[in-house]
Structure formats: structure tokens, C-alpha cells
Amino acid sequence: MIVTIDGPAGAGKSTVARLLAERLGFRFLDTGAMYRAVAVAALRRELSRDDAAAWADLARRVEIRFEDHRILLDGEDVSDAIRASHVTAHVRYAADNPQVREHLVQLQQAIGRTGDMVTEGRDQGTVVFPHAECKIFLTASPAERARRRVDDLRQRGEAPEFAAVLAEQIARDERDANRSVGPLVKAPDAIEVVTDGLSLDDVVHRLAALATARKGSAT
Ligand code: DC
Fold first, then answer.
1. For atom 8 of ligand 1, which residue has the closest CA?
2. Fewer Cβ atoms within 10 A, N terminus or C terminus of the chain?
3. Superfamily of domain 31-115, CATH level 4
4. What pLDDT does 219 receive?
5. What is the model's pLDDT at position 181?
6. Fold match between domain 1-26+117-212 and domain 31-115
7. Which residues, including other chains, have CB under 8 Å from residue 106's CB and lie 6 or more apart?
8. Averaged over 144-154, what is the pLDDT?
9. pLDDT confidence of 9, banded at 50, 70, 90?
């Protein structure tokens, strides 16, 4: 069974998806981490951000895989490196590149064929797993999402300004919604869950109930 969780940046998808996967005994796939890993590889090689062909070629050449919730880029654990602000600022050159997307979508579908999985991103229920048994669209208000991002960055030792984080988030929302390939849209058959005012445990509990009900009706 595939459970997809799509939604905007800062909606809490990664944490929720990871805990949901644990609760259901499913594997967990963080597809944003894959776009981030491509950006890390490109930044390290100092590829020009405008050289779409070089980014696509690199995406196909590097090895990206997950092991024990860590992401490995050519065997190196880059789980922390992919979260740095300068990677966040450049990840769009991977995410907006149709050839990079095509390759990563294939990888995601191959991982999905290996068993039950909770997968999160922007296009999981629409493009990557259109036949998923359970689709969630997870969101929260812009201010709530920016607050969470500020907390997250502080925990990583950065000193973000709320206004700057909010402005950057609005720009990312805009890009996510308007990307020509794999834009963030709610699948018609996705269930929308707004997480403002809900604890993490509430959200995971609600999603687990939805997934279990779908599983019951699918068998
Ligand atoms: O969820 P995140 O912030 O880790 O995602 C990183 C970037 O990748 C973000 O700009 C959105 C993009 N992304 C995407 O285009 N498609 C996905 N399935 C996942 C992420």
C-alpha cells in the first residue's frame, strides 16, 4: 500500500510522514531530500545554475539512496548537509528541471514497487503514484509554517528573521504551485488536513486512522 503526503513547505510533512510510517510499519520516503541531494552534488561541483543539461546529467550519474532514515549521496551521509540554508536557496534548480524530475520520479516509483510505503513531497499523489490507495494533502497557514521553519533553523544553529523566512516561503509556495512539471496541486482524491492548532501526535493519529480505513476498504 502506498500513502502519499503532499503539501507546501513547512506543513510538517517529513516529521509526520516518518512517524506515520513507523506507526504503520511502512517504509518512509522523503522525496524533497532527493532534490536537495542533487543540489548538494551540483553546488559541490560548482555547476552553473543555468546549465540545466549539466544538472540533469549529474542527477543521473550520482547514486542517491536511503539507509536507516539517512540519505546517502555516492555513499556519503548528507542528511545534515541537505538542510543548510544555501541548499534550500538552490534546490529549485533541481526541482524546476524537467529532466532531473523525470529521473527522480523513476527512482521514487522503483522504491515504491518494493513494498508498503509512506512517501512525501509535492507531486506524490498526482504524478508519481496517481493510483496510491491513500492520498493526504497536508497544509497549515503561512504564518504557522514560517514559525515552524524559524524554530527548525534555530535548532540548527542559524539565526533567522521571521519576516525573511516568511518572504522566502511565499516565494517558494509560488514556485511550487507554478512549476511547469510536477507542480504542487492537491489531487482530486486527496484528503486535506490542516495542521494549525493540532499537535504532532493528533496529526499522526488522524492520518493513521485514514490510512487504516483506506487499507481496509482496498482489501
Ligand atoms: O520538502 P523540501 O523542502 O525538502 O523540498 C525541497 C525542494 O524540492 C522544494 O523546493 C520542493 C521540491 N520538491 C519537489 O519539487 N517535488 C517533490 N516531490 C519534493 C520536493
1. 32
2. C
3. P-loop containing nucleotide triphosphate hydrolases (3.40.50.300)
4. 57
5. 87
6. yes
7. none
8. 91
9. confident
Domain 1-26+117-212 has CATH 3.40.50.1110: no
The answer to whether 145 and 176 have CB atoms below 8 angstroms apart is no
pLDDT tens-digit readout, 34-44: 999 999 999 99
pLDDT tens for 83-126 read 988 999 999 999 999 999 999 999 999 999 999 999 999 999 99
34 alpha carbon – ligand 1 mean position (Å): 8
**Residue owning the nearest CA to atom 18 of ligand 1:** 121
Q: What is 8-54 written as a DSSP string? A: -TTS-HHHHHHHHHHHHT-EEEEHHHHHHHHHHHHHHTT--TT-HHH
Q: Which ligand 1 atom is nearest residue 123's CA?
A: 18
Ligand 1 within 6 A of 103 CB? no
Q: Does the beta carbon of 91 sit less than 6 angstroms from any atom of ligand 1?
A: yes
Split at pLDDT 50, 70, 90, the class of 183 is confident
Contacts of 141 (CB under 8 A, 6+ apart): 194, 196
Ligand 1 lined by 4 (C-beta under 6 Å): no
Cβ pair 56, 81 in contact under 8 A: no
Q: Is the pTM of this model over 0.85?
A: yes
